[in-house]
Specification:
Blueprint lengths: L2 H11 L4 H8 L3 H8 L7 H11 L3 H5 L5 E9 L18 H13 L4 E9 L3 H13 L5 H9 L4 E7 L2 E7 L3 E7 L11 E4 L2 E8 L1
Antiparallel strand pairs: 1-5, 2-3, 2-7, 3-4, 4-5, 6-7
Helix pairs in contact: 2-3
Length: about 210
């Protein structure tokens, strides 16, 4: 079950509508809809408040086998600042991809860094839509294609620094760093794992 599915289930068990939850959190209903659709996640303070309001634990909402903890940082980034860097070990074919590599390498100069291919995990509702498309159109993976377009600006990395591991997300606008409560081993090319609503596959070490 994804974070969005857990949130929706907990909200319904609490007898609250999206509008009611949004009002308590002082956010828009669209924000709640986005979270429940796994198109985003609330910040730490909202996550704590959600757990309190819905009477569930934060571990229940976030739990990907307990791998994510709450120490998440986000900082603005300008990828063009890394255009002149040349420290990554692997040459990427797309210029923007290379800039992302250099940004995470500059943040963690002594760490082992693996680029992660990613695929968004479909919610139960999206799986139903996918099945409907499969029955009515020749394009069986319509939902997956739409998700791929929505996630083209996301670049994920697994960073191992001594005894710590981080899941790093880089977009055109920011770098987001999640400390992992449990380490992921072994790191081998092609190995897959699921975390935060995505399925990740180890790719190159940069």
């Amino acid at each position: 079950m994804t974070f969005g599915e857990r949130l929706r289930e907990a909200r319904k068990k609490a007898g609250m509508t999206q509008e009611q939850l949004a009002e308590v959190l002082s956010v828009s209903r669209q924000a709640v809809t986005k979270w429940e659709s796994d198109k985003g996640v609330p910040d730490v303070e909202n996550l704590k408040l959600i757990a309190k309001v819905l009477d569930v634990s934060i571990d229940y909402l976030l739990d990907d086998e307990g791998m994510l903890d709450l120490s998440c940082t986000r900082e603005p980034i300008n990828l063009e600042d890394y255009a002149g860097y040349n420290s990554a070990r692997t040459k990427r074919l797309v210029k923007k991809d290379k800039w992302c590599d250099e940004a995470v390498r500059a943040k963690f100069p002594e760490a082992r860094i693996n680029y992660l291919q990613h695929k968004q995990i479909m919610t139960n509702k999206e799986k139903g839509v996918q099945t409907a498309f499969w029955l009515t159109t020749p394009i069986a993976n319509t939902v997956e294609i739409m998700q791929a377009f929505q996630n083209t600006d996301k670049h994920f990395y697994l960073v191992t620094e001594e005894e710590k591991q981080y899941l790093v997300l880089i977009t055109d606008e920011f770098m987001e760093i999640h400390h992992l409560a449990k380490t992921i081993e072994p790191m081998k090319k092609g190995k897959r794992f699921e975390l935060g609503g995505f399925q990740f596959t180890y790719s190159v070490e940069i």
